[in-house]
């Protein structure tokens, strides 16, 4: 029997695979329920897991370079609207997205998928020259973060780390940077410090408007299978994709069933109303996997990755993923 370690956050859409409700005959899965802050460095530096959650942006970089220990399967286990992740220094004089142009902006890693998405949105929707911004990298609230892969940027692009010991939160307060792009709230913002504000005061409204214009529900992470294992076991990548798809469908059905009970299993009193609003915006199946349903979004991601000098070349959608998932 083939044994595979599977490193992924314990999402509702993955849980049926972790708890055995979804099984692959002849394969023993060993769940490693960790979040991406732990799995990404271990996957990209030493390919520690057989199957793992991957940063989509970092994976595209490696595919474009002909590198990488993993081949992706289009199970998009993490998606997130990121309009609420742009923080400003209140006295920086930035009143709209175009005002970010030419500024010094902090981000944990230039290559991270959040940055890829937000730069794409700023460029496409607001006409911002994102390659002309001075990008400064560091941990948002904890020092020591570094790019997980080396960058290959052209001369003239200004992307560099802040000094050792620096954080984006403190750099913003000290006036060393004008804004932050981060999935984690800067501590000052979380504490209600009036010196830090959001670019989009109503990020939910901004995200909903963006989805209505584009149809995109931003893909952040994919699942990856170690390339050597995929080559040794033909058919495995396709079977894994189907297993993740089945787990996603079960998770969706479980959500719907839970809302039909007279009492809620989660401490969210307006969960039913939020779920109804989500489906009204995103459709009855709001978290799709596969290439067919996500092709336009994946093409935009590939275009941004190349335009932002992350990918060496413009990638086609099919070459981003294992060939066994081409029909998904």
Structure report:
Helix 4 (113-126) crosses helix 11. The protein has 2 domains: 2-80 and 218-325, Periplasmic binding protein-like II (D-Maltodextrin-Binding Protein, domain 2); 83-214, D-Maltodextrin-Binding Protein, domain 2. It has helices at residues 15-18, 36-46, 56-65, 113-126, 168-173, 187-190, 203-214, 227-232, 236-259, 271-282, 295-307, and strands at 2-7, 27-32, 51-55, 70-79, 86-89, 104-107, 134-137, 159-161, 179-181, 196-198, 219-226. The strands form 2 sheets. A 6-stranded mixed sheet has the order 8-7-6-9-5-10. Strands 2-1-3-11-4 form a 5-stranded mixed sheet. It has 11 helices and 11 strands. Helices cover 35% and strands 17% of the residues. The two termini are 27 Å apart. The chain is globular and about 60 Å long. The chain is an alpha/beta fold and 328 residues long.
In terms of topology, how is this protein built?
Elements: E1 2-7, H1 15-18, E2 27-32, H2 36-46, E3 51-55, H3 56-65, E4 70-79, E5 86-89, E6 104-107, H4 113-126, E7 134-137, E8 159-161, H5 168-173, E9 179-181, H6 187-190, E10 196-198, H7 203-214, E11 219-226, H8 227-232, H9 236-259, H10 271-282, H11 295-307
Parallel strand pairs: 1-2, 1-3, 6-7, 6-9, 7-8
Antiparallel strand pairs: 3-11, 4-11, 5-9, 5-10
Helix pairs in contact: 4-11
């Amino acid at each position: 029997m083939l044994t595979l370690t599977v490193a992924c956050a314990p999402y509702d859409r993955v849980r049926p695979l972790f708890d055995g409700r979804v099984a692959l005959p002849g394969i023993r899965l060993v769940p490693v329920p960790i979040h991406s802050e732990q799995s990404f460095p271990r996957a990209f530096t030493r390919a520690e897991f057989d199957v793992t959650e991957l940063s989509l942006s970092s994976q595209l970089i490696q595919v474009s370079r002909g590198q990488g220990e993993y081949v992706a399967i289009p199970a998009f286990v993490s998606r997130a609207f990121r309009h609420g992740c742009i923080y400003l220094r209140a006295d920086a004089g930035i009143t709209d997205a175009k005002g970010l142009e030419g500024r010094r902006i902090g981000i944990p890693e230039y290559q991270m998928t959040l940055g890829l998405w937000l730069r794409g949105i700023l460029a496409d929707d607001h006409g911002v020259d994102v390659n002309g911004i001075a990008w400064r990298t560091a941990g948002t609230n904890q020092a020591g973060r570094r790019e997980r892969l080396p960058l290959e940027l052209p001369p003239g692009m200004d992307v560099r780390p802040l000094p050792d010991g620096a954080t984006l939160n403190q750099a913003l307060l000290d006036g060393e940077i004008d804004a932050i792009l981060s999935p984690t709230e800067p501590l000052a913002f979380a504490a209600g410090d009036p010196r830090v504000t959001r670019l989009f005061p109503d990020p939910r409204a901004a995200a909903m408007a963006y989805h209505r214009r584009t149809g995109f529900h931003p893909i952040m992470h994919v699942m990856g299978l170690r390339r050597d294992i995929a080559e040794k076991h033909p058919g495995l990548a396709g079977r894994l994709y189907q297993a993740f798809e089945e787990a996603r469908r079960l998770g969706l059905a479980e959500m719907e069933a839970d809302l039909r009970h007279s009492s809620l299993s989660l401490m969210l009193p307006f969960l039913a109303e939020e779920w109804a609003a989500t489906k009204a915006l995103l459709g009855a199946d709001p978290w799709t996997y596969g290439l067919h349903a996500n092709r336009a979004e994946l093409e935009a991601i590939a275009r941004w990755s190349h335009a932002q000098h992350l990918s060496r070349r413009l990638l086609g959608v099919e070459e981003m993923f294992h060939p066994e998932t081409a029909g998904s």
